[in-house]
Amino acid sequence: MIEVYAEIIQLILSFITLILGGALIIFIYDAYRTVRQPTLLLFTVGLFVLVLAIVFPDLARFAAPSAAGLFWAAVISRIGEIIGIGVMIYAVLRG
């Protein structure tokens, strides 16, 4: 029974992460529209990839609950996080 509650809590937390990440992306995009600086747009893309990569394992757990599916979801998530952070670092250094 506790496993069901743990999965529900993880799903709720991933949903909250998506909402907060989406709100932050919208705020940064609004700042981009004001100043028209390409660095902010690139930073927004990196943040978008990062937020999706963070919640990917939680969402993949429902699509592929096998051990191999969970392993590859974690691997893909880490690769996405590295790409997202890399794009954000590139945007800041380029800026």
Concise structural overview:
With 95 residues, the chain is mainly alpha-helical.
Describe the structure.
This protein has one domain. The protein is mostly helical and 95 residues long. The model has no long low-confidence stretch (mean pLDDT 93). Helix 1 packs antiparallel against helix 2 and helix 2 runs antiparallel to helix 3. The protein contains 3 helices and no strands. It has helices at residues 2-35, 38-63, 67-94.
Number of folding domains? 1
Q: Identify low-pLDDT runs.
A: none
What's the total count of β strands? 0
Our count of helices gives 3
The averaged pLDDT comes out at 93
Helix content: over 70%
Structural category: mainly alpha
Distance between the termini: 50 Å
H-E order: HHH
**Oligomer status:** single chain
Rounded Rg: 16 Å
The portion of residues forming beta strands comes to: under 5%
Characterize the biggest β-sheet.
none
Shape: elongated
Features:
about 100 residues, mainly alpha
Write the layout of secondary structure elements.
Elements: H1 2-35, H2 38-63, H3 67-94
Helix pairs in contact: 1-2, 2-3
